[in-house]
TrEMBL record:
Family matches, as InterPro entries: VWA-like_dom (IPR018698)
Domain VWA-like as annotated: residue spans: 280-394
Name by which UniProt lists this protein: VWA-like domain-containing protein
Pfam families from the UniProt entry: DUF2201
Length: 412
């Protein structure tokens, strides 16, 4: 039975038998997409599919711990899916949300964010339903100038200006345009954003590895760029951390478990062993200029560090001061939490004062920040620092060279 006939049968069968047929239709459509080199087929074949009558749309992406689910509502399916093209449009729409990381970036989104997310991905979806939100409809009916192929974040800012008008809010609410999926399930459920990001990154890496260059050549440039941005986001932490560790002047201690090199025949003499690195101390900028997206990315990078070096890692939030009361030790790469503790200004001097006062000079220091701080600091001679800036950031504001600077691409 082809997919269109299967959808026709779903609409005619009793509600008790619909779930099995819907699951079969979804599977057949995804396999068809996979066999024809379609991105959504490669991506969604890896998601568990779950029936859920609580979602307010045909489909929704939903977090269950650190697992991303493709959920569907049979009642909505019968109302909205009349052909294979309708089904394809919905599945492509979901895959584009994943590629642009919307299930991480929009944690419990409001109306403006939801519309912005939909119009950004709908530009890459074939067979859109007539009631879907699009740039063209918003521009025509409400006289909003919206550029094409921009990130949802830019659309959020433009729509906020327009929808701040109560009449405009009413007009959009009363229009026949609807969101294609239920975004409220983007909300995180007892799992860190770092773990969620790792899940999607691994999903996309697997998708890219299976698609091949021929199939990727059929994708729009913006989609390919986004795939590459996520797929290539790994930082060689081993290189940077080994370099940082090598700068630390390790002391030596006596041990009876090691032979004395100078007099190895004398068993009663202890040998010497090098002392270990105390810990890696990480400072995460919580100032007002830092986006939540960058903080999410910082957490995911720290997960990578801990997987490589499961040693003592301590995280300190900072803005104009170090929030020592909110510091914590990393015990698992899956349990690194993100809690914005402040939105003040940025003081890099507070970091070096803290290191000096607490006698933390025998540690390797990593600072996640946007680089927007003061120009002059007293580092007390401490240079074992790695600054991790957003790719979109300007240069680090400090005039004096202290340590090394690398950049990572933001997840916008």
């Amino acid at each position: 039975m082809n997919i269109n006939n299967l959808i026709s049968a779903i609409n005619k069968t009793s509600s008790d038998n619909q779930d099995l047929l819907i699951r079969k239709a979804i599977s057949q459509n995804i396999i068809y997409g996979l066999s024809h080199g379609e991105l959504y087929g490669y991506l969604l074949i890896n998601l568990d599919r779950v029936c859920d009558y609580n979602i307010n749309s045909t489909f929704a992406l939903k977090w269950e711990k650190d697992n991303l689910l493709l959920t569907y509502n049979p009642k909505q399916f019968v109302n909205n899916i009349k052909s294979n093209n309708d089904l394809t449009a919905n599945l492509e729409h979901l895959s584009m949300h994943i590629i642009w990381l919307h299930p991480i970036r929009y944690n419990n989104p409001n109306k403006v964010e939801s519309i912005a997310a939909d119009i950004s991905v709908n530009q890459y979806v074939k067979f859109l339903p007539k009631n879907a939100f699009t740039i063209e409809k918003l521009s025509y009916f409400y006289n909003i100038k919206l550029p094409k192929f921009k990130d949802s974040n830019e659309y959020v800012n433009l729509l906020k200006q327009f929808i701040s008008n109560s009449k405009a809010r009413k007009n959009i609410s009363n229009s026949d345009m609807q969101l294609m999926d239920d975004h409220k399930h983007f909300k995180k459920m007892n799992v860190s954003d770092g773990a969620k990001y790792s899940k999607i990154r691994n999903l996309i890496k697997h998708t890219v590895s299976k698609m091949g260059n021929k199939n990727r050549g059929k994708l729009p440039n913006a989609v390919n760029e986004q795939l590459d941005k996520i797929n290539n986001k790994q930082i060689n932490w081993r290189k940077y951390i080994q370099k940082g560790v090598s700068k630390i002047p390790f002391g030596e201690s006596m041990s009876i478990k090691r032979f004395n090199r100078r007099q190895s025949y004398r068993m009663e003499l202890p040998g010497k062993i090098s002392s270990n690195l105390k810990s890696i101390i990480i400072f995460i900028d919580n100032s007002g200029s830092i986006s939540n997206n960058y903080l999410n990315l910082a957490i995911s990078q720290i997960s990578d560090i801990f997987r490589l070096y499961p040693i003592d890692i301590i995280i300190y939030p900072f803005d104009a001061k170090i929030h020592e009361q909110n510091a914590y030790r990393v015990k698992s790469s899956q349990k690194i939490r993100y809690d914005r503790v402040s939105n003040g200004g940025t003081s890099y001097q507070s970091i070096f004062d803290f290191i000096h006062i607490k006698h933390l000079e025998n540690n390797f220091c990593i600072i996640f920040t946007d680089g927007l701080g003061e120009k002059n600091v007293n580092n007390y001679g401490f240079n074992n620092v790695l600054w991790v800036l957003e790719d979109s950031s300007n240069n680090l504001s400090i005039n004096k060279r202290i340590g090394n600077v690398i950049r990572i691409t933001n997840i916008n």
